[in-house]
Amino acid sequence: MAKPVIRKVLAYVVWDGRLLVFRHRDHPDAGLQVPAGTVRDTESVEVAVLREAQEETGLPGLAIRRFLGRYEFDIAPYRDEIQDRFVFQLDVGQEPPKEWVHHELHDGLQPPTAFCFYWLPLDDPELDELVVGQGALLSQLQSEE
How far apart are CA 18 and CA 141, in angstroms? Predict the structure, then answer.
């Protein structure tokens, strides 16, 4: 039986040559991540990436700079699915904090999740630690900066 294919968006939020990343405060084993999430049936990938990035970060004024690409990723063993990923570079509307904690509310369907955000230079080796293939298109950012 074929694995289901789920549409996902990833947000590479860039400020001053740095990429926004986060770790789960209560689940450090979840690893280093970028804002990402599932595309709802009723929305475009452009709407989804802005919604997910705002919900996860709490940052106002996020805007799409450019579409970086699309790729499929088999997320096994975490879930039995193929993710059809759409990756966007987002800009921040105003100077953001250096680091902060934001609680994603999950539409009230589960307890809030605390995310600890901070910025890493685009050439920082720590970006190699991005989980489950989230760093696949980082070279697209480095080519522009």
Answer: 10
